[in-house]
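--- STAGE predict ---
source: upstream dedup step, 1 unique chain passed
mode: sequence only
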Amino acid sequence: MDRTKLLEQAQAYFEQGRDLALEWLLSPAAWTQFGLLVVAYGAAVLVSRRLKPLLERLLTPQDDAQNVVAKSRRFLFIFIPLLLPLLAYALTGLGETVTRAAFGSGEVIAFGKRVFMFLAARILVKEIIDDPLLKVLGKYLLVPIAGLYALGFLDEVMMKMDETVVPLGNLSFSLLFLVRFAVVAGAIFWLGRWSNDQSAAFIKSQQEMRPAMRELAAKATEITIFGVAFLLVMNIMGISLTSLAVLTGVIGVGLGFGLQKIASNFISGVILLLEGQATVGDYVELDGGEAGTIVKMTARATILETYDGRWIVVPNEDFITTRVVNYSDQGSANRYEAPFSVSYDTDINKIPAIVEAAVAENPDVLSDPFPPDCELRAFGDNGIEFAVEFWVNGIDDGRYKYTSDVLFRIWNALKDNGIEIPFPQRVVHVKGEIRTRAK
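--- STAGE serialize ---
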């Protein structure tokens, strides 16, 4: 009996679908809508083919252009792949208006219009968005939503999601609200990140500002942009900031002690940027043994890059509470010395002139604040010990090996003048007669 009822119900559905299909096939309104849909798509293809080269020329700046207008043109250029589906969507929208006015229906062309919107969403996620977070949101939220919209199920699904309430302490949100929040917040913060990148690049290109002030201005701009983005998201989603005050207070009390170090590092970072005693590009050495070139200063820590390519993350507080040696690789001269020795048979009065002239030929050795200075240091066990002091702009390490080149020049200069460079020697005195064993 149950099997018979199922068969009868299936047959009824089949006949209903058949009658609906025949009605659509024999309906002038359906054929008109399908024809308008094809015409709208064909017109969109023709228009996009003519507009695409024009837009590419208008939105492609010169390769070396880095101003705000050029960057905005490059930003708009990435959206050119959306031209065809959006044109088709707009033209099918006009066709839907015509068919609804003429026949009182427009389901076929409306379905086609929604499909074009789905294609636009898919192209946006697949070809345009490259940010990892937005790509995930687009893949798992935007594209499924566009698919439901194309199939006509979006309103029903949204109604079910709106009825599903998610409790969060004293607050409660619908599932639909959370999805909207994720999409809106993702889009706004992506735009905020892009704006922050452009602002930071513009600020760091202002060479008349001190490096520390450029870093401070960039950080202040970043905080402002994302602060405005947060308030904008809260306002758009209709969330009252006072409703979050209790939750924020509980989190603040619970994490306050644990965030003391973070607050200390943040304040220390601001002090470093304001004072400018250590900035990006400086070579520094801390009491703890950490040494390297500052490559980045964040709100919490300063990143040092050693000459073997490793990055050391140093909390900003360490720059305030410990002793820091700043070799100031950014244009500050540093003094180094290269030791050497000559034999006791040498006329040592000639050595300073020969060595100083040889070292001065190095293009990196400075004559200001002081030229190369060769000094007699000691009468050693194996030879007379000298050292030449020289000044350079930089650190004698990494890609700059000043001392190595200076020693090469000293060696060649001494050899050219016939001066012997001694090596360890020992004189052995044997007392008495040396007897040999007879074979």
